[in-house]
PrgI family protein (Anaerotignum neopropionicum), 132 residues
Amino acid sequence: MAYVSVPKDLNAVKTKVMFNLTKRQLIFFSLAGIVGLPIFFILKGSIDITIATLAMMVVMLPFFLFAMYEKHGQKPEVIIKQIYMVKKGLPSERPYKIQNAYTLLEKQYNLNKEVTQIVKRQHKTRSKAHKS
C-alpha cells in the first residue's frame, strides 16, 4: 500500500513552479548556470578540465546556497543582514539604563516634604503678622 506523508504545518509547504522547484530555486539555479558555465568554457581551454570544473563549482556554490538554505524559516540574505547589523550596524556599547521606581518615590517624598515645610513657614509668618 502506498504511503504519503502530509505535513501538519501548511506554512512550510512551498508552491512548486517547474521541475518540482520553487520560483526562488529556479531563479538562483538559472543564475548559477549563467555565471558558472561561461567560466567553465573559458577556463577549460587554458587549464586542466578538472580544475575548470572545480572553479565552476566554487563559483556556483553561493547561488546553490541562496537557493536551498533556510534556517528557522529565514533565508540566507536575512541571516547575513542580521549578522551585519550585529557586527557593524548597531552601536557596540548599549548602556543598560533602568528607571528605578524607588528613586522616583524618594524624589516625590522629598518634594512633598519640602512643600509642607514651605507651607508651614508661610503659615507661621502669617500667624505672627496677625498677632502684631
User: Anything to note?
Assistant: The longest helix spans residues 101-131. The chain is about 65% helix and 0% strand.
